[in-house]
What we know:
Elements: H1 3-17, E1 19-23, E2 29-34, E3 39-44, H2 53-83, H3 88-96
Antiparallel strand pairs: 1-2, 2-3
Amino acid sequence: MPDIARRAAEAKARLERVSATASSADGAVTVTVNTSGALQELTFGPRADELPRARLAQAVLAAAKRAQVDAAQQLTAVMAPVIGPDSDAMKFLREQIPAPEVPEETPRQEFTETPPPPVRPARPPRPDDDEDFGGPILRRGL
């Protein structure tokens, strides 16, 4: 088997085993992607039950993007010996792999309820108030 064919066969076998896993900082989410960045596994830790859905979705996407970047780096490392690290083919490969912005895990504010509006103090009764209904119920001129 020629050298290039052997290296290609080895690269193919290695690429079949490439995967990358990333987790959220709080352990709520762990994702695994394959060589192409496709999601292969998604697991939720105990902390996931405590997060609002929007925050959980953000954690899944952030972990997936970090894992995809790792998988792309593994792909280029596997292919470098086959096509040459500085070859035009490697440059082309690197150009085809998007360099996504990897979101950092930033502490999010915990969900809190909006405080209720302030309660207006009751107005003091006017001297001519009909609270005891001792006077006329309907007044004119108010």
